[in-house]
Every structure is written in C-alpha cells, then in structure tokens.
Amino acid sequence: MTSLVEKGIGGGLARRPNSCVDVMSGLVAGVGGSVPVTAKIRMGYDQKSLIAESLIPRLAAAGAAAITLHGRTTVQRYTKRSDVDAVLQCRGIARDCGISLVANGDAFTVDSLAALTEGGREPVMIGRGALIKPWIFRELKEGRLFDVRSSERLDLLRKYSGYGLEHFGCDA
C-alpha cells in the first residue's frame, strides 16, 4: 500500500465511509450547484469491508451527480479480476438513487466493455486498458479486436511519450 492510502487518502477513504460522505457534502455545498460533483470509489478497502452498495445511496443523498466504481478493493489493487457482477448490481442501486454509475476495471476488450456498458447503453471509464492498448477505442468503434504489430505499438509509444514531453516537459 502506498503511504497516501495508509494516511486515509484515496483508496484509504474506503475505511472511513462517513468521511467520504462529508467530503461529498462539503464539495457540493462549496460549488453551490454550479458544477456537477462526482466521486470515484472502489468496492471497499478489502474483502471484509465491502462498502460500495451502502455508500452509493449516501453519496447520492449528499449531492453526487454520478459515481465511478472500480470493481476491486483497495487492497486487491490489480491482483484480482474486477467484479463485473458487483459493479452491475451497484449500477442498479445508483439508478434507483437517480444518478449514473460509471463502471471501471478490466476494460481491455470489446467483450469486457460490452459487459461493463451493458451493451453500450451505460458509461464506462477506461484506465489501464487505454495505456496498455491505446487502440482500444478503435476496437470499440468498430466492434472487433485488432492485432497490432510490435512496430506499430512502438510507434504509438513514441508518439505518446512525445505528447507527454511536449505537455509536461523533461524532468531531467
């Protein structure tokens, strides 16, 4: 675990759901309705403390416009598969609360995205999938997998790195 999580920041907030609700209430009050406020949460801190199902209604009541849910716990990080069934169950809870739930976790293929988006009807957040397979958006658009040659992958990596250097500069 990172020191930030150990300090209760980020995924560490999953151990303090009341604080999550307090942060949401404060942010919503602070912006005075001028912009939508969203949250990204995980299923819980660990398998013994799954909180997403109970936290979603509380965040909605605190004014969350939408919630992004990662289908793993903080402790799992990327060692286990995302729990798509649990994410979809939580989407129903969010829907009952009148807000959208954006699914996140293991969005690597057209099939996994179809499950997370419920056939393209619901939102999904693509994280590592876009870093690992930048062409995933093309796969989605065309509904098929692409076998990208290693030379093309290297070209994409060079282009991506160039964009980063152009935007952020060199840290040397």
Would you count the extended β strands for me?
4
Instruction: Give the SSE order as H and E letters.
Output: HHEHEHEHEHHH
- Measured by DSSP, the beta-strand proportion falls in 5-15%
Specify the biggest β-sheet: 4 strands, parallel
- The N- to C-terminal Cα distance equals 28 Å
Spatial shape: globular
Quickly give the structural class. alpha/beta
Helix content: 40-55%
List keywords for this structure.
single chain; 47% helix; 4-stranded parallel beta sheet; alpha/beta
Structure, explained:
There is one protein chain. The protein has 172 residues and is of the alpha/beta class. Helix content is 47%, strand content 10%. It is built from 8 helices and 4 strands. It has helices spanning 3-6, 17-31, 52-61, 84-96, 110-116, 128-132, 136-142, 150-168, and strands at 38-42, 66-70, 100-104, 124-125. It has a 4-stranded parallel beta sheet with strand order 1-2-3-4, with helices on one face. Strand 3, helix 5 (110-116) and strand 4 (124-125) form a beta-alpha-beta unit. It starts with a helix and ends with a helix. The mean pLDDT is 86.
SSE blueprint:
Layout: H1 3-6, H2 17-31, E1 38-42, H3 52-61, E2 66-70, H4 84-96, E3 100-104, H5 110-116, E4 124-125, H6 128-132, H7 136-142, H8 150-168
Parallel strand pairs: 1-2, 2-3, 3-4
Helix pairs in contact: 3-4
